[in-house]
Amino acid sequence: MLASELFGSLWDAGKADIDITGIAYDSRKVSAGNVFVCIKGYETDGHIYAKSAEKNGAAVIVAEDKIDVSVPVIYVESSRKTIAELACTFYGDPSKKLSLVGITGTNGKTTTTYLIKSILEAAGKRVGIIGTNQNIIGDKILLTKSTTPTTPNALELQQLFTEMVYNSAEYVVMEVSSHALALDRVHGCEFDVGVFTNLTQDHLDFHKTMENYFRAKAKLFEISKKGVVNHDDEYGKRICESSGCDILTVGLNEGCELRAENIKVTSRGSSFDIIYRGESYAANIQIPGRFSVYNAICAAGAALQLGIDINTVIDGLAKAVGVVGRVEVVPTDTDYTVIIDYAHTPDGLENIIKCVKGFAEGRTITLFGCGGDRDSAKRPVMGEIAGKLSDYSIITSDNPRTEDPEKIICDIEAGMKRTNGKYTVITDRREAIGYALDTAKAGDVIILAGKGQETYQIIGKEKHDFDERIEVYRHLKDKGC
Hints:
Strand content: 15-25%
Mean pLDDT: 93
Strand order of the largest sheet: 8-7-6-9-5-10-11-12-13-14-15
Helix content: 25-40%
Radius of gyration: 24 Å
Structural class: alpha/beta
């Protein structure tokens, strides 16, 4: 593609045109003929790598600040928006060839994407997913999730859309994080349906205030043709009041256009009635928990907004299987149960504990920690929740990163001590899991909370292999179980 075609009016018509071979924002990945976009990040600034990019063959450099290089430089107000626009143009606007469904919210995004995928596949559609666990089309994994965020950066996102189109996807259902919205990763995309699940405390290390967090989430409905909003959530009500798109309200309360009632939860799943346009439809999902019903009703709303009929919605919900790391039962031959769940926010932890207490025959034992270099304000809140709701808690380490694990645990303990909850502290997560397994009794349910689908621990700046499923099996095997 010629530079004049890629940059349009940004390209100086008086300059000789240049053949552009690609786009990069990492100077180490620049090759001959590439455009290098200088982006200011959390830990470094792409502008300081401009000369390195030039040395590696960059033909044009995009920057916000003045740089000293010999190749053409295009100065812009926002490098993030510009790289999104360039990627859209370079790859031929692939998202315009797809029906996009975006899910935002603190909790429930991943499960909701898979529920929507199941419904659309029940309708005979070919569906791709972009999200926390994996990027897939049907059963084909497109890109490992060990190196990418929930919502990929703008360049990778357009590359994924291109691959989705190449693999004949009709719909793409994707998680849209608050970071992605705030940092313009989805700039240039238009969603057929945007979905809001809920908003509770998280990511305040980045957004600083809940209002900033909310405003980032609400941006999805500025770029969506239609919306599905959890109207039981106070922030959801605000989106309904301010958004200009066609919104379907969902929830469990009277007044929602689509709601669930008569909910019954067991360890094997949840059943409920869907009330829509004055009619009642019996529905069930293979995922336990009242919060899972909220996810299901959001998914149902998205499908209805896409024109899928209600009977296909019911069929698709029933066929959906559980998601890795979400209320995931680890198969063991023990007389107690081990569940892995990604709960890493106050609301998520409260949901999974209440869910388990609804069917546990014995004690609910909650093992959890909090991530380092992230929102520290939620740590005592999570400690208090675990102390009030669990029969026993084990506070441990969870991706401490560059923080002292003991300091993180002290923050959690501050909340735990406001309750009468029984607990112990075992900093090493492997030892903590072993202790939970050794002390569990018949009928108990152990919740391993926080890591979910993750198969690593981040200590310092390095990732170490750590799969809780393997840890459970290893410990039981060592015990001769």
